[in-house]
Amino acid sequence: MDMHYLTVILLGIVEGLTEFLPVSSTGHLILASELLGYDASVWAMFNVMIQLGAILAVVVLYWRTFWAVAMGLLRLDPVSIRFVRNLLVAFIPAVVIGLALHDYIDTLLGSPRVVACALVVGGIAILVIERLIKEQRFHGIADIPLVRVIGIGFIQCLAMVPGVSRSGATIMGALALGVERRTAAEFSFFLAIPTMLGASTLELLKKGDQLTSAQVGWDSIALGFVVSFIVALLVIKWFVGLVSRHGFAPFAWYRIIAGIGALVWLTLR
Fold first, then answer.
1. How crowded is the C-beta side of 124, counted as CA atoms within 13 Å?
2. Which residues form a coiled coil (predicted)?
3. Half-sphere exposure of 232 (CA within 13 A, CB side)
4. pTM given for the model
5. Dihedral sign of CA atoms 33, 113, 235, 190 in order
């Protein structure tokens, strides 16, 4: 197979594997560009578009939840209204801070060392939070109080530093604020939909002329989208089952080992 399409498939797999795990999909894509030696700027918009494949996986897997919420909204059901309210409120900080710091975030995205350091620090943070968490009072997204939802929304913004992980920040923030593990993970999945759609729309408005290039055409974007979608479908179901039984420590140790390994490699290469 042509090396170009092997790269497309590999990036689709990396995106699908890491988008919803607390390990940072953006960070892994940045490190992949360094490891494989390709021009990351050429593939930047490709990476944005294949994220939508991973987001579609959430919609497909949880379509019954979304349908029930939609029907509940028509009936003015209080639980459905709180569900939607919580997602929208948690999304607002990312909109405000993302628009304000967009150019600075773009600068950080060019630094694999920032990614490696963030992987290590984030891994340590997960271990600390897992050890300290005692009380988990909220067992449904609609049950999370508004003030805690706002807190989760601001904590999600830490993921604007590449390597922190949007899902990791959201999940750990929710756990620290008293949300049960499975609910924290699912809240992260659902919050990814408006957050990633918003981030992708912003990138398209700013850099839409770079959507395709001589190196990365629509065929590559379509293939990467499909690969990301399929892999994310498999990962989400596995992830929810794993964290319900074993917590998030395995991902913390992976982050620490991967981050240290990346720092050593970046120093010695």
1. 7
2. none
3. 29
4. 0.85
5. negative
